[in-house]
Specification:
Radius of gyration: 29 Å
Distance between the termini: 80 Å
Shape: flat
Structural class: mainly alpha
Helix content: 55-70%
Length: 141
């Protein structure tokens, strides 16, 4: 039995790899379909069509059980959806306006009488240094 298992080890490894590829391709196709549906009109018609065609190619490769085709179509779908994601990111960045970096304001500049660098902490700027004592309620009585 052990010899038989050793002789079929390569076959088992290839079968496992084929199943993993099939599962990954199916999962990617499902996720892309769901994302396209959720995004709706935010994706341009041309890009949406490309992704839908790539999804169809992945589904066809899965139905044919062609591992090499699944690999190719998986990579193609991944690249197409990545282009769509990049386009959406650019749109979101353009709508949000310039945000990177600190904006000049009362918190970034030094206030009169403040220590050097104290205004650059990023907090609310009104820090109060105080001492306190913890009073145990049981000992108080």
């Amino acid at each position: 039995m052990q010899r038989e298992a050793e002789t079929h080890a390569d076959e088992d490894k290839k079968a496992k790899e084929a199943i993993e590829i099939k599962n990954n391709a199916d999962m990617l196709a499902y996720q892309c379909e769901k994302q396209l549906k959720d995004l709706g009109d935010k994706v341009s018609g041309d890009k949406k069509k490309q992704v839908e065609d790539a999804i169809a190619a992945v589904r066809e490769a899965i139905n044919k059980n062609d591992t090499d085709a699944m690999k190719r179509t998986y990579d193609d779908l991944q690249n197409k959806f990545q282009e769509v994601s990049a386009e959406l990111y650019k749109q979101a960045s353009a709508q949000a306006g310039p945000q990177p970096g600190p904006q000049p304001g009362p918190e970034t500049g030094a206030r009169p009488g403040a220590e050097e660098g104290a205004g650059k902490r990023g907090g609310d700027g009104d820090v109060v240094d105080a001492e306190f004592e913890v009073v145990d309620e049981d000992k108080k009585k």
